[in-house]
Design goal:
Distance between the termini: 65 Å
Largest sheet: 5 strands, antiparallel
Helix content: 10-25%
Number of strands: 10
Shape: elongated
Strand content: 35-45%
Order of helices and strands: HEHEEEEEEEEEH
Radius of gyration: 22 Å
Structural class: alpha+beta
């Protein structure tokens, strides 16, 4: 017996094509909304988000909070010195952290970082960074600015209230 192949009907092909185009158009037209890091910090910290900077010293296997700062230029970050002990240290930044994440499906699309070489950890919210290794008593300053949020289903009109509450 010969197996017959069933060709999809033109209507079925049209439905698949329409669904594909609809999904692609949503991704292309996702809203991208800019906010200064200082504004995000002000709104989010009132609504249960955490912002932290930690210095980790490898030799002593210890971690200590460091100085979190909101700068006049609208950026937020960490500033200070590593421990005055032999062995490398690095800085870990954790911004916009909350168990439930950002609200209404908003995610962090992009942000700028200045100050030190670093690695971004993960995508979406929260913002997490680890700097490169630093020596003893090294002065550091690292800033996050120009945060852009995205959501394929929401508009920028109320994004500050939706994302940070």
């Amino acid at each position: 017996m010969e197996k017959s192949r069933r060709n999809p009907s033109p209507g079925r092909i049209g439905l698949v094509l329409a669904a594909t185009l609809l999904a692609a158009s949503g991704a292309v037209h996702a809203e991208r909304c800019a906010i200064t890091a200082a504004d995000a910090h002000a709104i989010a910290s009132e609504n249960g988000f955490n912002f932290s900077c930690v210095v980790y010293h490898e030799e002593s296997n210890s971690a200590a909070p460091t100085h979190f700062q909101v700068y006049d230029d609208g950026s937020i970050g960490c500033v200070g010195n590593t421990p005055n002990e032999l062995g490398p240290a690095w800085i870990y930044l954790n911004f916009l952290n909350r168990d439930s994440g950002l609200g209404k499906g908003w995610e962090v699309w992009n942000y700028d970082v200045t100050g030190l070489p670093h690695t971004r950890i993960g995508a979406g919210a929260p913002i997490r960074l680890i700097t490169g290794l630093l020596g003893p008593n090294a002065r550091y300053e690292i800033k996050v600015s120009n945060i852009v949020l995205t959501n394929p289903y929401r508009k920028c009109t109320n994004f500050k209230d939706e994302a940070f509450k």
